[in-house]
Design brief:
Number of strands: 11
Strand order of the largest sheet: 2-1-3-4-11-10-9-7-8
Helix content: 25-40%
Order of helices and strands: HEHEEHEHEEEEEEEHH
Shape: globular
CATH superfamily: Class I glutamine amidotransferase (GATase) domain
Bound molecules: zinc ion
Largest sheet: 9 strands, mixed
Strand content: 15-25%
CATH class: Alpha Beta
């Protein structure tokens, strides 16, 4: 009788573990902090954050919490997000006042240093020109007073990444037109199986970006056409970096909702976020991914 009870109790325990533990663990989503805020004339986060949240949720892999910083000139003394609860931070943040308290900066640095993932999206690389650790994380950035003191220019020449110490300001782009993105490293999990070249929807093509460029691999470039105020160079578009144990994915794409509707933007953001969080990409390239000569846009209803 007692043996029977023990067996029955054990059976229940195994059953409970199977029902409650294992299936939950297998389906556990990647925890993403979508960190946004600061009012910015060029990059308001209010329309773009719901879109980013929606496309990550559509990938079926992520649980996204939106965390919004105080506005420009606001009180940061109680803004203490716990980065360590997340596997990756997606930064939709264009600083207005560059006034993160030292404690917040240290907590962010330690998070990435200790292996936290970071995704730098478009205007986030305009932020914090004077914060050395942040610039090591993003590799290259533009505007907000950056110049040759921020680091050299980085671009591709004859198929190779070069740095150029010529003096001058950092950050430029022409009118928003479609442009072709060229894969430069097809062996990386983010770009594996992507077409060698694909046509991105009308967007700002960032050029003359500067920065330390340490531990940086450029996965894709685009030709910055002098006919559209461009440099005549192949400019970095998608990058991966390491900062301590942390993985960073940096995409300069996606100025506005029209540019973000590109199936190529959506897929690379979904893949880059998974990679920054886990070091792997399990997602298949979608069938509507753009071809070399044809833009492919998707309708996304973000709430
Ligand atoms: Zn922009």
């Amino acid at each position: 009788m007692r043996r029977g009870q023990r067996f029955f109790t054990g059976f229940l325990m195994v059953g409970a573990l199977t029902l409650c533990g294992l299936p939950l663990r297998a389906a556990e989503p990647i925890r993403v902090m979508l960190l946004d805020g600061q009012q910015s004339r060029s990059h308001p986060w209010e329309p773009t954050s719901p879109f980013l949240k929606e496309i990550l949720q559509q990938a079926g892999l992520f649980r996204v919490d939106q965390v919004t910083s105080p506005p420009v000139g606001g009180d940061f003394s109680r803004f203490k997000p716990d980065f360590t609860n997340y596997q990756v931070i997606l930064l939709n943040y264009d600083t207005g006042d560059d006034q993160w308290p030292a404690e917040l900066k240290t907590s962010f640095e330690q998070y990435v240093q200790n292996g936290g993932g970071l995704v730098v999206y478009h205007g986030a690389d305009n932020s914090f020109p004077g914060w050395r650790a942040f610039n090591l994380m993003i590799g290259i950035g533009g505007w907000r007073g950056r110049d040759e003191k921020s680091g050299p220019l980085w671009y591709f020449r004859e198929g190779k990444l070069v740095s150029d110490t010529s003096p001058g300001p950092a950050g430029s782009h022409g009118a928003r037109l479609p442009f072709q993105v060229v894969t430069r490293d097809a062996g990386h999990p983010i770009t594996r199986d992507l077409p060698k070249a694909w046509m991105h929807a009308a967007d700002e093509l960032y050029a003359t970006l500067r920065g330390p460029g340490e531990n940086m691999t450029v996965l894709a470039t685009a030709y910055s056409d002098p006919a559209n105020k461009g440099t005549g160079r192949d400019e970095p578009i998608l990058m991966v970096l390491s900062y301590g144990k942390g993985r960073v994915f940096h995409s300069v794409l996606g100025h506005d909702l029209a540019a973000m509707s590109c199936a190529g933007f959506i897929a690379t953001m979904q893949r880059g976020t998974e990679w920054a969080a886990t070091g792997k990409v399990t997602q298949k390239v979608p069938t509507d991914f753009p071809a070399a000569d044809k833009v492919s846009v998707r309708t996304v209803s973000a709430r």
